[in-house]
Write a structure and sequence with these properties.
Layout (H helix, E strand, L loop, with lengths): L12 E14 L2 E14 L3 E5 L6 H9 L7 E9 L14 E2 L8 H6 L4 E4 L13 H12 L4 H14 L5 H4 L9 H13 L5 E5 L7 H18 L2 E5 L3 H7 L2 E6 L2 E7 H6 L4 H8 L4 H5 L45 E4 L2 E3 L6
Parallel strand pairs: 3-8, 3-9, 6-7, 7-8
Antiparallel strand pairs: 1-2, 1-4, 4-5, 9-10, 10-12, 11-12
Helix pairs in contact: 3-4, 3-6, 4-6, 6-7
This protein binds iron/sulfur cluster.
Length: 349
């Protein structure tokens, strides 16, 4: 449990990540996969986390779940989870710092898969190919809820029904290979939601699906989020998905959050040069409709090698607004521009 003396937080706060660092000591060098991340999620909120591959989005999620693959480990920071003790959300729990326990500590296991669940890009990451869908969902339920096997099977069938599976009673007896990709992802969402988590982490949940199935799964997640009142941490590289789903957006670059604000401000008033670059690389429908075949804008240069620690702002070799002598020497801090809008850039210091 978190020591006494912490400042009071809003009752709406569900998860606070503070200065989280998750590093990998590899033979080739040290990889700072998550390098001082600060994030906050409120109850019932959808927070979109965006950025290019390798920016630390997934590793931040794995750090919250405490499922970091070896040799990665949390070397600093806090993951404060303000969960409820009981399912009807009437009793506030003491704050738990998930970063302060071993990954297999009973307090982490009691929260993982129960109060915090995760859906991965590839459903077979979560499903065993040799067991029926029903046995896997009921196992997740009996692990965390005080119900017998018959009751757990009823809950599992109800969840499959809620995620839009036809004949849910029959589907319980199916093996994952008997389901389509979209159905498998629905089954994984049913399993993740079967214990009514307060936070669902969805890591590129629709990237492997065709666009029609993607739209159905996103609709489903939004409906279930509204119905169950859970928060969602939605990790994606797709800004269209973020525009459609998120209330709040955090933009990550090389293991750090470089901008966080509400979804409208990200799209209509972005501040960080990297956020602006990401937005200008989205193809515009109106250009296509007007026959305007403009070359797509891209962000200059490549994401640097993860083994190479840059001085100053980690975005400076690619930044169009780079200030020589400052950006390459001094690391910018995350500063609050206005209520609810923070940015990590010297232009606003
Ligand atoms: Fe660009 Fe400098 Fe801002 Fe970094 S700190 S994003 S290099 S202007």
């Amino acid at each position: 449990m978190v020591p006494n003396g912490r400042e009071a937080v809003s009752p709406e706060t569900l998860l606070q990540i503070r200065n989280l660092k998750t590093y990998f000591q590899l033979p080739e060098g040290l990889v700072r996969a998550v390098d001082g991340v600060d994030l906050e999620i409120n109850r019932g909120q959808i927070l979109g986390v965006v950025g290019e591959s390798g920016c630390g989005k997934s590793m931040t999620a794995m750090s919250i779940m405490r499922i970091i693959p070896p040799p990665g480990e949390i070397i600093e920071g806090e993951i404060l989870f303000h969960g409820y003790v009981n399912q009807d959300a009437t009793n506030l729990q003491e704050v738990v710092d998930l970063a302060s326990f071993q990954p297999n500590d009973r307090r982490v296991r009691a929260i993982r898969g129960n109060q915090i669940s995760m859906v991965f890009q590839e459903p077979m990451t979560a499903l065993s190919p040799v067991r029926t869908v029903g046995s896997q969902i009921t196992e997740a339920i009996t692990l965390h809820r005080q119900v017998n096997k018959v009751e757990a099977r009823e809950i599992a069938a109800d969840m499959l029904d809620r995620v839009g599976m036809s004949n849910p009673g029959d589907r319980l007896n199916d093996y994952p290979f008997q389901l389509s990709g979209g159905m498998r992802q629905r089954a994984v969402i049913a399993m993740a939601l079967s214990c009514q988590p307060q936070l669902l982490i969805a890591d590129e949940p629709t990237t492997a699906l065709d666009v029609t199935t993607e739209a159905q799964i996103l609709d489903l997640m939004r409906d279930l989020q509204a119905e169950l009142g859970m928060a969602i941490l939605l990790i994606t590289h797709n800004l269209g998905v973020v525009a459609e789903m998120a209330d709040e957006v955090a933009v990550m670059y090389l293991g750090k959050v470089v901008e966080q604000t509400d979804v409208d401000s990200i799209f209509y008033a972005p501040k960080h040069p990297y956020t602006k670059g990401l937005l200008s690389s989205i193809p515009k429908l109106e250009d296509a409709l007007h026959g305007d075949r403009k070359k797509l804008q891209t962000i200059e240069g490549m994401v640097p090698s993860p083994y190479h620690q840059l001085s100053g702002c980690s975005f400076h070799p690619r930044c169009s607004e780079f200030i020589a002598g400052v950006c390459d020497r001094v690391e910018p801090a995350l500063i609050q521009l206005e209520e609810g809008h923070s940015v990590r850039c010297h232009l606003y210091a």
